[in-house]
TrEMBL record, chains A, B:
It comes from the Bacteria. Pfam families: PDH_C (PF20463), PDH_N (PF02153). This is Prephenate dehydrogenase. It comes from Salana multivorans. InterPro entries: 6-PGluconate_DH-like_C_sf, ACT-like_dom_sf, NAD(P)-bd_dom_sf, PDH_C, PDH_N, Preph/Arog_dehydrog, Prephen_DH. Residues 18-299 form the Prephenate/arogenate dehydrogenase domain. GO terms for molecular function: NAD+ binding; prephenate dehydrogenase (NAD+) activity; prephenate dehydrogenase (NADP+) activity. Belongs to the prephenate/arogenate dehydrogenase family. The lineage of its organism: Bacteria, Bacillati, Actinomycetota, Actinomycetes, Micrococcales.
Length: 383, 383
């Protein structure tokens, strides 16, 4: 391959004018530092924990220091202390634009606005604050897991408010773009309701579903398939961080939990009737059908691969024996066939010695891929 | 590649002695027919719909006919009619072992046993019936989606009962093995409770979660990430089939829904307090932490890749520009590096032009893969 793949972009100049100061050098703060430092922006770091700050410096996320001449300050501390730190930062950095990256916006904005009302900061200070929220992150945490590309291709919500300065909003939008993200402007309540639906309630629901396995016997767990794995994957999240997020978005989350409970209660009542009087008990089939049907409609609203334009791909599924080298050999064969691969998924199951690889291609390439793999000895499912 | 990959197994002789008769030639029945026919077993098919039967025959799943001399009959009809068809089949095939493959076992077994009690069948007939349940299937349905490898590597639950003949149980266990599955013997209630926890309640919960998106604005959906997609993927299931399954397993499902509702109610109450009195309202953080923590423990009980022995792999994540040929080029490069790939996952996000490919390898191969891909021009995340 003489031409380097385009996944190594030419290092383009960023627009964010430094220095940038980062308060809180965990996963998000250190990742921001790494990305900016890589782009040649001067970054300073501080953290309540000297050890955490030193670690972030050591991974290359910036230099330790108070960042007195910073033009932008990113407050990347846990959501329960974000507002306090924003207020302190606005006072200690009278010329900087200040953003926080907490997962909840209304409660943070509310506390910062309260500080302006009671005089702890001036209205001119409030104008320099623009809350934001990069929709990025991993199960891992801390600076050791920091990654300059954490934000690449992800949305970054920017939250203006009544007293904000337009130039400050532009500064934070620009920062997001420089970090590879797509800025999306939303009001604080709009943001909180949105993340309640697409992030916070899914977390709660996954956790509650996984908790049903606490009492399940081993034989039940042996039957686990991809459906269970998908619905409970995020149940492995960090309890402390998520508790702070959930109580910080308590109203919108509680409202959606109430609606979910109502759906479950209706179905449960219909099923109790079926359990007592038989599956054809009046209303049982209708209630169950309705629950699944409404879910069909809901899930169809999630944007496809390119934000709403969901293309149709053809799936070619191949059996992959679970032995060393097999998956790599499949990659070689697929690559040599020269078919453009749009997507790829692997499926495993417990105690099994074979996996299923699903290769998504444009429909008119499916036959060529199927024939090509078949000719190379692969068992292509359905052919 | 001079040596064919081992994913094309030598066609091994099956132990199931035919003929085998399949009643109901939808996805499961036609897949069973295809697999047996491929192994040289004589298969006959019938279906209440002549068109469905003809389609199954046309895809190669067997010959149309009553299968009078069948030694094994597989009843593959919807769960709400499975028991009736089993009873009829036992009477019309007095020498065959009869199994059904419905997703719910106790209600089917109960109705078949009732038929023995009231004399519609004899106890000798009941002894030839062995309920079973292949844990396999796709969102697609019907014989057009039939696939002889549908059961490969999957569990197949076999359900003995008090009046069963041991030889009949062995016949069905053998059938499962011949179809590439792993037989697991469970009692009917044990099966129903197990699938309620690992399959039926996850379906309900995914549907109820997806229904929360019905009223979500477009901007909210634009923030959707992998967590939402994973937790709602199975919400795309078929409502009619799933309604029949849920009402057929009504008791166990209702019990788990009640437990889930109780968890949600407890959290909702704590969050209402936080919404009214602030995030630090007594009890709010504890309640939220507890929900997520219990989910941590529950999800950790799901078996890893090889049934309980969860190995640790190292993940190497690569940015893949969303342009034709890039993913294929990655496959070529990975293959050429000769690193054994244990698992592979792709992550996309709406309206983004880049994806993230996560390649799982044994930990001591991670550096070699990272360096190798980096040297070939790939942007490896975190390096």
């Amino acid at each position: 391959m003489s031409e380097p793949p385009a996944s190594r972009p030419v290092e383009h100049a960023v627009s964010t004018a430094g220095p940038v100061h980062v308060v809180g050098s965990g996963l998000l703060g250190a990742s921001i530092g790494l990305a900016l430092a890589r782009a040649g922006v001067e970054v300073t770091l501080e953290d309540a924990s000297p050890a955490a700050a030193a670690l972030a410096r050591d991974v290359g996320a910036g230099q330790l220091g108070p960042g007195r001449d910073a033009r932008v300050v990113v407050v990347a501390v846990p959501p329960d202390v974000a507002a306090d730190v924003v207020v302190t930062t606005l006072r200690e950095h009278p010329d900087a634009v200040v953003t926080d990256v907490a997962s909840v916006k209304a409660v943070v904005l509310g506390e910062v606005e309260a500080a302006a009302r009671d005089g702890r900061i001036a209205s001119g200070d409030l104008a320099r604050y623009v809350g934001s929220h990069p929709m990025a992150g991993r199960e891992r945490s801390g600076a050791a897991a920091a990654d300059p590309d954490l934000f690449a291709g992800r949305p970054w919500v920017v939250v203006p408010h009544d007293g904000v300065d337009a130039a400050a909003v532009l500064t934070i939008r620009t920062l997001a773009v420089d970090l590879g993200a797509t800025p999306i402007q939303l009001g604080a309540r709009e943001h909180d309701q949105a993340v309640a639906a697409v992030s916070h309630v899914p977390q709660v629901v996954a956790s509650v579903l996984a908790a049903r396995l606490l009492d399940a016997p081993e034989t039940a767990l042996a039957l686990a398939g991809q459906g269970l794995r998908d619905t409970t994957r995020i149940a492995a999240s960090d309890p402390r961080l998520w508790a702070a997020i959930l109580v910080g978005n308590a109203g919108p989350v509680a409202d959606l939990l109430a609606a979910a409970r109502a759906d479950l209660a209706g179905l449960e009542e219909a099923l109790r009737g079926a359990a007592e009087h038989g599956p054809l008990n009046p209303g049982a089939m209708a209630a169950a059908t309705d629950v699944v049907h409404r879910g069909n409609v809901g899930v169809s609203r999630i944007p496809g691969k390119h934000g709403g334009v969901s293309r149709s791909y053809a799936d070619v599924t191949v059996l992959v024996p679970d032995r060393p080298g097999q998956l790599g050999r499949l990659f070689v064969d697929v690559g040599e066939l020269g078919v453009n691969v749009e997507d790829f998924a692997m499926e495993h199951a417990p105690r099994q010695k074979v996996g299923l690889a699903t290769i998504s291609v444009l429909p008119d390439a499916a036959d060529r891929l199927t024939d090509g793999l078949h000719g190379r000895g692969w068992r292509v499912v359905g052919s």
